[in-house]
Amino acid sequence: MAVLSMRGMAVLSEDDRKSYGVSQMTTLIEHYGNETNGKPPLIDADETLPELDMCKALVVQQQYPCHTVHSTWKVLNANHPDRFPHLLKLSMIAVLAPLQIATVESGFSVQNDIQVSSRNRLSSDRLNVLMQVSLGPDIEAFDFQSALNKWKQLKKRKLFAK
Residue 162 has what pLDDT? Predict the structure, then answer.
């Protein structure tokens, strides 16, 4: 997805600029430009490469910032909102994909913190419960009264017998 930031476009020769990002974009088109499990493609495979060529020329001509995908597409979307619809969809995916990966990585990190070598006999059910506790809601957002009421209802407890 780095091709969408268009970093370094200003310093490329005309020939290098024409071939810049074509192979990476072709891979993205193969993935997002085809029907998957009965769902329509997200982008039009035939229109995306021509959009990329127009976009590269515009970025160089207007000297738009090309530091990150976000900065490039913020400017392009503000100044040319309807000109690159397929590339805009890909840029949104590029900006949001790391957020999805971070959640998964956080889960693996918690699992590694819980399941250390001294806990090598930890069952997967117990690990699951400990991970739910670790990844659960923030203490400020947790409804203690509701949890207490549910715990009381699970069975008769001597603590609350009258």
Answer: 62
Rounded Cα–Cα distance for residues 103 and 53 (Å): 35
pTM of the model: 0.61
Angle at which helices 45-62 and 69-79 pack, to 10 degrees?
90
- C-beta of residue 69 within 8 angstroms of C-beta of residue 97: no
| C-beta neighbour count of 88 within 10 angstroms | 20
Q: What is the Cα–Cα distance from 78 to 108, expressed in whole angstroms?
A: 38
* Percent of all residues in the chain with a pLDDT value above 70, rounded to a whole number: 96
What span, in angstroms and rounded, lies between the C-alpha atoms of 10 and 57?
A: 10
User: What is the CA angle 93-97-102, rounded to 5?
Assistant: 165
Element (H, E) at 124: helix 124-135
> DSSP 3-state assignment of 104?
helix
Q: What is the DSSP letter of 155?
A: S
Paired strand residues for 36: 39
Quick one: 31 exposed, middle or buried, by C-beta within 10 A (0-12, 13-18, 19+)?
middle
Tell me the CA distances in angstroms from 102 to 3, 97, 99, one per residue in order: 21, 9, 5
Q: 93-97: which pairs have CB atoms within 8 A and are 24 or more residues apart? A: 93/1, 93/32, 93/42, 94/1, 94/4, 94/69, 95/69, 95/70, 97/1
Phi, psi of 91 (to 5 degrees): -65, -35
